[in-house]
Amino acid sequence: MTAARSGPAFSVHDIPFSTYGSWFGISRVVAEKTYAEDLHLVSHQNGMHGVLRLVPLDPASGERAGTRVEATPGLLGWTGGNGRVELAYESPDTVRLRGGGLDFAVLAAARTLTPFSGTYFFHDPAADAHVFTSYETGRRYRVTVLSGVLAGTAGSQALAGSDRGLTVTARADACWEIAIEEFDAARPPYVSVAPFDAVVAAARDAFAGFVDAVAPWRSDATPAAELAAYVLWSATVAAKGQVTRPSVLMSKHWMDKVWSWDHCFNALALAEGSPELAWDQYHLPFDHQDESGALPDSVTHSEVLYNFVKPPVHGWAFGHLRRRLPSPLDRAELTEVYERLARWTGFWLTARRVPGAALPYYQHGNDSGWDNATTFAARRVVVTADLAALLVLQLRQLAELAAELGKRDAVTRWTRTAEEIQAALLDQLWTGDRFVARSAGTGETWSSASLLDLMPIVLGEHLPAEVGSVLADHIKAHLTPYGLATELPSSPHYLADGYWRGPIWAPATVLIEDGLRRAGHQRLADDISARFRALCETHGFAENFDALTGTGLRDRAYTWTASSYLLLARDHHLRADAGTDNPTVL
Hints:
By secondary structure, the protein is α+β, with helices and mostly antiparallel strands. The strands form eight sheets. Strands 4-5-6-7-16-12-11-10 form an eight-stranded antiparallel beta sheet, with helices on one face. Strand 2 (34-43) and strand 3 (49-57) form a beta hairpin. The longest helix has 22 residues, at 408-429.
C-alpha cells in the first residue's frame, strides 16, 4: 500500500477531497450543514447531490468497519483493523480505489427510486460493469472491478425502495481495485491507463505544480499557504453547462456557485501563478451580463440567477489584477474589459439611480454582498456609502482604460462622473464623524454599527485625509484578537453566528486592508493583515469566523477565504523582503 504522503494533511470533515477540473468530490457533507456518517461521492452537476455512499466493511462480519480517514491532496485513505482502502483521482471524472484487509461497498445514497428522483442500478453487459444512474445529477456512475472479487450486489434493476449497490473483496493475500466514473450517456468500457501508485503520483505532482505556481513565496512563515492552494485547486471545475470557463466554485460543499463578487478575490490570488485561470475567473460572470449591463447574482452548473446583483468591486479588482498578471494585457484584452466594465457601470448609473440623483442605490442587502448587515435593518432600498465608493473606483478605472485605448471623450466623461459621485458621497452621506445610509424613496438617513458603513476607506488615496483618519479610528473599534468584526461586538445587534452581523469575513478584510494602506494607515493595515493570516492558520478557510473566538462558521472550505489568505500572505512576504513591513501590532 502507498506509504508516502505529500502536501498538507486535512480533515474531510472540513474540506472535501477532490481534484482540479472535477465536478464531484468525496465528502461527508451531503447538503447544507448536513454531515453523513460515511463518505459520499458528492456531485455538483444540477446542484449538490450525494450520489454514492462509500463504506469500508469488516471482511469477517460484513458490517461497517471502524476506520480513520486521512487525506492529502493526492490520496484519501481509510485505515482500520488490519486493513486500508485508498482513493485517488485518475482524471477529473474518474477515481480509482484500492484496498486490502477491508472489503468495500459502493451504494446508492438514496434508497427510494421514483419516476422523477433517486438512483437506478444495473449491470451493463456491454461494459461488464455496474452502473448507477442519478435523476438528481442527470449523470451515470459506473463501477468497474479491476482486481479482486465482486462479493455481491443488491437492488440490481430494482424499482421503488431498495438498497442498491455492490461489494468488492480481495482474493487471498491480495488487494482489490475498482474504478468509478462520472459521465453523461455512454462511453467505452473502462480500461486502466496506469497502475494505482502512478495515479497517486500524478495527482500529487499535479497539485505540487499548482502550489509552486500560485505560492512560490511560501515558507515556514506562511504555514497555511499549501492548504489554501489546495482549497482553490480542488474547488476548480471544468467548463460545463452554464459555467462557460474553467472556474473556481466558492466551495465543493453547499456553496457550490460563483457569485459575482467572490470571483474577483480568486482571480487576484491566481493572477501571478495561473494567469489564464485568473482571467477566466474575472470574466465568468461577465459572460452572462444581461442587456441592461447587470451581472448575475450567481452562476453554477445549471442555473444563472438575476434576482439580485453584487457590488461593483470589479474596477477595484481589475486594477489589482493587471498589476499582478505576469504579462501585460494586449489591446483586445483591454478593450474587452473596458466594454464589459462600461456596461456594468452603466447599469448602476441608469437602472439604479433615482432620476436626477447623483448616488446609486441597492434594492436589498443581498445586492451589496453583505446580505443582512444592519445598514439594511431600517430599509432595504438604500443609498449607501460603500456603493458610491466602489463605483468611484470603477469609474476611475474606466477613465484609465479609456486613456490607454485612445478614447479621449470617454476619459473626460468617466472622470467627471467619478468626481461628481465622490462629491455627492461626501456632501450627502458624510456627517463629519461617519457615513450614513439613506432611503432611496423617502430620503430618511440613519447610521449603524456595521463595518459596511466604513467601507469608503477603499477610496484610499482619493479620500480627504481627515475623513480617512476618522474611518481608520472607527475601523480600530471593530478589531478583535482575530480580525474585523462586521458588527461592533458592543452592538445590541451583534450575533456570534450572525452572518454579516458580527463574524469576520475575508473580502471585507482584504478591501479594508488595501484601502487603509493606500490611505497611509500602514500600521493598522499591517495589524489587520497579521490577525487575519493568524486566524486562517489556526482555524482554516471557513466562509466566516466567530469574531470573539475565531471558530470557523458555515461552509468550512471557502475559496475566497483561501484566496484572501494567499493575497495577504504574499503581500506581507514581499513587504518583509523589501523591509517595508511594520512588525509592530497596534
